[in-house]
Description:
Elements: E1 2-3, E2 23-24, E3 54-60, E4 63-68, E5 73-76, E6 83-84, E7 93-97, E8 104-108, E9 113-116, E10 124-127, E11 136-141, E12 147-151, E13 156-159, E14 167-168, H1 172-175, E15 181-186, E16 192-196, E17 201-204, E18 210-212, E19 221-227, E20 231-236, E21 241-244, E22 253-254, E23 263-268, E24 274-278, E25 282-286, E26 292-294, E27 296-297, E28 309-315, E29 318-323, E30 326-331
Parallel strand pairs: 1-2
Antiparallel strand pairs: 3-4, 4-5, 5-6, 7-8, 8-9, 9-10, 11-12, 12-13, 13-14, 15-16, 16-17, 17-18, 19-20, 20-21, 21-22, 23-24, 24-25, 25-26, 27-30, 28-29, 29-30
Amino acid sequence: MRTVHRFYTFTALKALLVLGGIATLPLQTAQATAGEPLAAQPALIAPLAPRSMLLDVVEAGDHLVAVGERGHILVSPDGVEWKQVDDPVNVMLTAVSFPDAKNGWAVGHDAAILHSADGGQTWTLQNFQPDLGQPLLDVYFADSRTGFAVGAFGLFMQTLDGGQSWEVITPPAVVDDGNHLNAITRLHDGSLLVVGEMGLMAVGDADGNWQKIESPYEGSLYAAEALGEHGVMIVGMRGNAYRTDDVRTGSWSKVETGTVQGLTGVRSLPDGTFAITGMNQTLLIVAQDGKVHRGEIDSHDPNGESGPFNSIVVHGKQVLVATHEGVRRAVVNP
C-alpha cells in the first residue's frame, strides 16, 4: 500500500481507489509491536473539524450527522452549527446510515464499522480490520437490525442483528469479479442496488437473491438514487450519468451533464429534480425533463482549494452538501 495526501479523494472512492489502488492516510493507526494487530485509535477533537473534508451527511431524526477525514463525526441541529463528537477511530470515515432517529452506523477505512444508539452523540466500534486492506465505502440499513456494508475488492458484509455480528457474504453477481463496490442503495420497490467498478451493477431482493444488471456504462459508477417505483439514476466517471424507469428491464437514457468531472453523489430533491455532486466543486441539478444546470454552494470561497463536493442531504427546506471544507448549503434554483 502507498500513502497519499489526505485530500487525494474521490468521495466514494471515498477516497483513494480510482487514482491508483487502495491507499491509507498517514498516522491513522498506532504502530503495533511484532506479532500484534494494529489497534484502533480514537479520533482527536479538532477545533477546525467543522471545516474539514466530510464525505457523507445524513438526517438522524430532527438533526444531522456528518462523517469524514481522520475519523471526524459531527452533529448539527440545523445544518449551520456543527459539533464534533468523540468516536473510537481516527481513520477516514466514508459513509453513514441512520434507519431511525436513534440508531446509526458509519463505515470507513480499515473495514471500520461504528454504531450509535443515541442519534450520533456517542459511538462504539463493531468491526476493525486494518490488516484486511479493504476499506468500506458505503453502508445501508433497512432497519435497526438489517444492514449491509460494501467496499474495495468486492468486500460485501451483512448483519441481521444490528451489528452484534457481521458476516462477509459472497453473492456471485456482486463479488465474483473482485471489483470495488462503491455504493449500495434501496430502490422504491424494496430492491437493493449495488454499483461499482467497471460498470458493475447488481440488484438483490429480500431473500438474498442477486442478479447482475447490464450497465449502460463500462467505467466506474460511484453512486445511485432511486427513481420512480423500479428505476434509478446512476453517476460515475468522466461526467457520466444515466437514468431508467426500470433497472431490471428498462432502457437507459444518458443525462447530458456537460462536464467530464467525476460524479460521486446523487440525491433526489422534493421538487422531483436530482442534485449531483462531483470533483472540482461540481454541483449539477437535473430537472424532470432532463435539462441540467449548475448549482452553487452558499458561503463557499471560490478562491479556496478546488476540492470535491461529496454527498447531499435534504433537511427541511435546506439542501446541504458535504464538501472538502465542511457541510455547506446548496443553492439549487436556476
